[in-house]
Structure formats: C-alpha cells, structure tokens
Design a protein that fits this description.
Length: about 550
C-alpha cells in the first residue's frame, strides 16, 4: 500500500477519534449517553453530513473486531450451568417475540398501505434487536451478570441465529431461478451448526484447559491467545454461514468454565470499548438521511410498536413462565429497538429487487428513532419501572416460582442482612459466619446465589434497586443491614427504603470515596465501610506496630 494512502487512512482515523472524543465530552456535559453521541458523530461525519467518513475497510475491520471482543466477553461470563438455567426462557422469549412481532408488524405494515412483500420485510426487520448495543449498555450498567441481563443476552443470541436463517432463506428464494434449493441450504446450516457445537465441546473437554494452563504462565501470551481465539471464533462462525457474533460468543463460552475467564474478561474491556467506538461511528455513517422526509408518520407508528409492543410481548412470555414483573420488564426493554441486521435485511431485499428505496429509508428512520430512544429507556430502566410498576402486575403470576424457592421471611432471626456477595461481600460473609453470626445474604447474580447456597449459606436472589425487595426483607428480626455495593445512588435508595419501612436496627453502607462516606455519616448511617481504604489503613497500622517493624 502506498505511503500516501497509509497517511490518509491514519489521518482519517485520527480525526475520527478526536471528533468522537469531543462529541463524548459534550455528551457528558449534557448528561447524554455516549452511544447516542457516537452515532450522531457518525451521521455528521458520514455521507449525509460532511462526508469525512465513507466506506473504509479499515474502519469496518476495527468495528468487526470490537463486535467479536464484545460477544467473546459475554460468552466468557456464561458457563454451561448458567446456560442450562436461562436457556429455556431465552429460547421461548426469543422465538416467541420474533413470531408475535412478525405477525403484528405485518398487519400494521399492511394498514400503512404497503404491499405484501414489503410488509413481510418490514415485519421481519422489526423483530431483531441490536445485540451489540444492548450488551454494551448492560455492561456499562454492570447488569450483564444479573438475571434479566443473562436472559436478555440469551434471547438476543437466539434472534441472531434466526436472522441468519431468514437471510439464508431470502437469498435462496431470490436465487431460486439459478438452481439454489432453500430447503437444502437450511439443512446444511443446521448440520454445520451441530458440528460447530460438537467441536467446541471437544475443545472445552480435551484441549483448552491444558493449553490455557500453559499460556497463563505469561499474561501477555494469555491475552494474545484470547484475542486470537475471539477473532478466529468470529471468522469460523461467519465462514460456516452464521454471524460473527454467534462465533465469537461460542468462543467465549468455550473458555468460560476455566479459571482464567475473569482475568481475560477484565483485561479485554478497555480494548473492546475502544474498538466498539468504530462500530457506532460506522453505524451512524451508514444511515442514509436523504430519503427520510416522506416517511415520518409511518416511522413513528412502527417505532411506537417496537418501543412499546416488543417489550410487552417479552413481558407476557416471561410472566407466563413464572418470572417477576420487574425481571420481565427489565429484560423486555432490551428489545425496544431494531438491529443493524434489520438495515442489512432491507438492503438485501432491495438488492434482490423485492424493495424500493422508500422502504429502506423507512426502516432506517425507525432504526435511528428506536436505537436512540431505547438507549435512554435502558439507562433509566429502574426509574421507569418504579413509575410503571402498579400497572405491570398483569404480567406476573401470583407465585413467581422461577426466582425464589421460598419467601424471604422464612429464615427466622437474622443477625446480619448482607446485600452483595462480590469479592468483598463474600469475604465479609465468610468471616461473620466463622464468628457465629446468623447471616442472610442477597445478591442479584443467580450464579453467585446458587454457588453460595450449595456451600450452606442462607442466600436469595434479589436486586437491591428493586423497591419490592426491601418490602420483603425480614427487617423486624434483623440487627444489622450491611450493603457491600459501593455505588452511592444504590446505597442512598436503600437507606431511604429502610427508613420508609421504619427499620430500627443498625445500618452499614459501603463507599468508594471519602466524600461519599462523609455524606453517609451526615445522613445518620451507623457505619460506613470503605473497603480498600480500610484495608490499607489496617495494613499500615500492622506494618508500623512495634512487633511488626523490622529491626535495623
């Protein structure tokens, strides 16, 4: 490649990064989501704006690498036990939502005056949600390990598989005159999928544990292998007729049961976020804004269906399966937008001669509206739930057997109610139990809950941001309520909820900074825990004590 071409590409990427940083800073000042800011930057830099960003193999490569690492990290957090737990609801919700959205979307499209063929394309396009955007938002909110986060990721992966089958079917249908057999193509993709799963299972059992153990002697080699494994998995998925997302996801699952998944996931986060920036820029740049003016009214109708109808469908399915309305609501919000696959689908339809530019522009506008709006809905999901909770009981059974085996009030007297079983919380619970304390723990990660339950802990699933959880806690028989989550907003909400319940025991909250600790103290909290600062102070006192000081 000539040096001038390299210099131009380097300058283009540098300009994109600089402008994206400026856009991100403005978004922070205006308290707007970074994802929306990056998409807007992409629109402004793309052909509909100043034209700085056009189709570029380098930008597309960075975007695809970011997607591969994103789904790889998601797969790292889902071992086989978790898949068995959320698999049925993910499959039922994913397929059910695709079916109902397609049927209702088809009828709405017909009412808007579209032809049958256009209505089918639009209906199918409305069913698919953006795995990349949703997983990024859940990760930013630290909800990817929650029950609703795992269910959402599960049915988003189901959607990705369905869209692959749909696009194979459409391509085969469009080429039917050229001797392409649609049934044979579908059977082949199913056979390839089965062989891919068997290969992953064999690698998990016989190859990867020993290989990772050897590579772990060098952190650099371990991370290099992880990145290579993610990219190769994505490439394998694409080569076999699946999406890159599915391949990278399976690559992550293949090493999720090893002892190194936490280390790998933690070190890949920064690289993942950097590369994903190019995905959002590319997404914004590919949105054609020139044909959208005449599609406003139809796009609003379809957008409202996606923003409201899709979540309601998921909530109805999950409620029928025995999940609480809050879990169903938070998972349902993740399908309140259409996917980049939707744009690819209608572009395929136009290339096959099934659609015109107006339908492509309509779906593009629906994508822009729903992606931006749903981003806010997901970021403020808990506040939305508090406002809508009284009207959501219709989506909940009287006994939500999927989440609690027995009511929280059946444990008898409790010395300490411990909220959060992360690294600090688990060590705290272990030390309290060793001293004879009766501890009841609550955590929002179902895997952690089941693991500690097997170890003999009194532990329940629950999210402390759920106001209904505080109402169900055995507060009258609890001496201490201790929260190990170091988020000020969550702790403040917990403190307000405890006082609303007239809790008379003592309260200990955790903080990540001295400023927040002082705010808690002024609010009358009995004890403020600052884990790292407390441990550092205790270590310093031990080091400087007379017995611990080395002789000179």
């Amino acid at each position: 490649m000539p040096a001038t071409v390299i210099d131009n590409v380097f300058l283009q990427i540098g300009a994109i990064l600089g402008l994206a940083a400026i856009g991100g800073m403005l978004a922070q000042l205006l308290r707007q989501p970074l994802i929306v800011a990056f998409i807007v930057v992409g629109i402004l830099l793309g052909p509909s704006g100043v034209g700085m960003v056009t189709y570029s193999s380098e930008i597309e490569l960075f975007a695809r690498l970011g997607i591969a690492l994103l789904l790889f990290v998601v797969g790292l957090k889902l071992d086989l036990h978790i898949i068995r737990t959320v698999g049925p609801v993910a499959l039922a919700s994913g397929l059910g939502q695709v079916l109902f959205t397609s049927v209702i979307g088809y009828l709405i499209a017909l009412l808007l005056g579209m032809s049958h063929v256009s209505a089918v394309y639009v209906a199918v396009a409305l069913t698919f949600s953006s795995t990349i955007i949703i997983v990024k938002l859940l990760s930013d909110k630290r909800e990817d390990d929650s029950l609703h986060g795992r269910i959402a990721v599960g049915f988003l992966i189901v959607q990705d598989i369905v869209v692959v089958l749909v696009m194979i079917g459409l391509t085969a249908y469009g080429q039917a005159g050229e001797g392409v057999n649609m049934g044979r193509e579908v059977v082949m993709i199913l056979i390839k999928g089965g062989l891919m799963l068997v290969t992953v299972a064999l690698l998990m059992r016989y190859v990867l544990p020993g290989l990772l153990h050897r590579l772990a002697r060098s952190t650099e080699l371990l991370m290099l292998f992880a990145i290579a494994w993610a990219v190769l998995g994505a490439a394998a998925g694409d080569a076999l007729g699946f999406s890159k997302e599915v391949g990278a996801f399976l690559a992550g699952i293949s090493i999720a049961s090893t002892a190194y998944r936490t280390q790998v996931a933690a070190r890949l986060v920064s690289l993942r976020d950097f590369l994903l920036l190019f995905f959002f820029i590319e997404l914004g740049a590919t949105l054609d804004m020139t044909t959208l003016g005449e599609q406003v009214s139809a796009s609003i109708v379809l957008s409202l269906f996606v923003l409201i109808g899709n979540p309601l469908i998921v909530m109805a399915i999950m409620g029928y399966m025995g999940y609480r309305k809050r879990t169903s609501f938070l998972a349902g919000l993740t399908v309140a937008q259409i996917s980049e696959f939707s744009l690819i689908l209608v572009a395929l339809g136009m290339s096959l001669g099934h659609l015109n530019q107006e339908i492509v522009g309509l779906v593009t506008l629906v994508g822009l509206i729903t992606i931006c709006t749903s981003t806010y809905m997901i970021l403020y999901s808990h506040a939305l739930y508090e406002r809508l909770a009284p009207w959501l009981s219709v989506f909940e059974r009287k006994v939500t057997h999927r989440e609690l085996d027995r009511p929280l009030g059946n444990e008898g007297d409790v010395d300490i109610l411990l909220i959060g079983l992360g690294r600090f919380g688990a060590l705290l619970a272990e030390n309290l139990r060793a001293r004879g304390c009766r501890v009841l723990a609550v955590d929002f990660d179902p895997d952690i809950v089941q693991r500690h339950a097997r170890d003999g802990y009194a532990v329940h699933y629950g999210d402390i941001e759920d106001p209904e959880l505080v109402d169900s806690l055995p507060l009258a028989r609890t001496r201490w309520v201790v929260c190990t989550v170091r988020d000020y907003t969550i702790n403040h909400l917990l403190l307000q909820a405890l006082r609303k319940q007239n809790y008379s025991g003592k309260i200990a909250l955790s903080s990540s900074s001295r400023d927040d600790a002082q705010r808690f103290e002024t609010e009358g909290v009995d004890m403020v825990l600052v884990p790292y600062a407390d441990a550092a102070r205790e270590s310093a006192e031990r080091l400087l004590s007379t017995d611990a000081m080395p002789s000179v």
